[in-house]
Amino acid sequence: MKRAKQLPILIEKDEDGFYIVECPVFSGCYSQGKTMDEALENIKEVIALCLEEKENQKAFRDFHPQELSFHTLSYV
User: Fold this and answer.
1) What is the pTM of this model?
2) CATH of the domain at 48
3) In whole angstroms, what is the distance from residue 13 CA to residue 67 CA?
């Protein structure tokens, strides 16, 4: 049985209340939703479309991070 690969996604709530979601492993892989659940379902569909391209299939195969982290930085 193949083990599911974990992909990083970034989620940001915009000023209109929509959730913008992006998978940085693939160029141009982003979507949105009115709710967090809707945004997550939408990005799954976009990831599936991205994986139809050979370049993204290679990026997916070669993606083996040892550690992922997300930080915020206050900047004035």
Assistant:
1) 0.85
2) 3.30.160.250
3) 25
CB 60 within 8 A of CB 5: yes
pLDDT in tens, the chain (76 residues): 777 888 999 999 999 999 999 999 999 999 999 999 999 999 999 999 999 999 999 999 999 998 888 888 898 8
> The sheet that has 30-33: what strands, in order across it?
10-13, 19-22, 30-33
Overall number of domains in the chain: 1
Q: Where are the beta strands (DSSP E) in 1-76?
A: 10-13, 19-22, 30-33
Q: Structural domain of residue 26, as residue ranges?
A: 10-56
